[in-house]
Write a structure and sequence with these properties.
Elements (H helix, E strand, L loop, with lengths): L9 E6 L8 E7 L16 E6 L7 E2 L1 H6 L4 E9 L2 E14 L3 E10 L7 E3 L1 H4 L3 E5 L6 E6 L7 H6 L23
Parallel strand pairs: 3-8, 4-7
Antiparallel strand pairs: 1-10, 2-3, 2-6, 4-8, 5-6, 6-7, 9-10
This protein binds zinc ion.
Zinc ion (ZN) binds next to loops.
Length: 181
């Protein structure tokens, strides 16, 4: 599923002072809208705390968020939880990430979240480019949708190594037969 209409590109960055153990940002949630026929709504004032979780398959919202926004339920899915399988409500929402990056219609399910109102899962993260860096000890998370290029630190660091030279990783093999592949 495309989360942004084709031709649109959007990005957001969250800079932290120091190193953080959990990637948290504020997000805003509102009912879904149609990018083709409606203008994006103003960013709703009431924000939620979101955790960006590469270990989560789907984006999840807490029941309190669905209740507060009176979101219409669009279905039920079976979810595995620590207490076994349970039915979880599914909603369609617009998700306002930092820098007013707005995804107009994201399917989210309801679940219990520890320490946040929203879990941003790989359904969102995986639809674009996502980077986490710790330059000079500060965590910076950046996200762009849709994906525009591959970031590869191996290529970046070993650039300029002749193909037939020993591989910089120390394997003893030629670069072309090792990390260049
Ligand atoms: Zn190598």
């Amino acid at each position: 599923m495309e989360l942004l209409p084709s031709g649109k590109v959007a990005a957001c960055t969250a800079k932290h002072e120091g190193r953080v153990a959990v990637l948290r940002t504020n997000v805003n949630i509102a009912p879904p809208f149609d990018y083709e026929t409606e203008t994006p709504p103003e960013v709703p004032g009431d924000y939620c705390v979101a955790i960006w979780d590469t270990g989560a398959t789907n984006t999840v919202i807490a029941a309190t968020v669905a209740e507060r926004l009176s979101l219409p339920q669009i279905g039920l899915i079976k979810c595995q939880t620590v207490n076994g399988e349970r039915d979880s409500a599914v909603y369609l929402v617009s998700l306002f990430l930092p820098n007013r990056l707005c995804l107009p219609a994201v399917r989210v399910c309801e679940g219990d979240i520890f320490g946040a109102d929203v879990l941003i899962g790989m359904d969102v993260i995986g639809s674009g480019d996502f980077a986490v860096t710790h330059y000079e000890g500060n965590t910076v998370m950046s996200f762009r949708i849709p994906s525009k290029k591959c970031i590869d630190f191996v290529v970046e660091e070993y650039a300029g190594t002749p193909r037939n030279d020993p591989c910089p990783c120390g394997s003893g093999k030629k670069y072309k037969q090792c990390c260049l592949q």
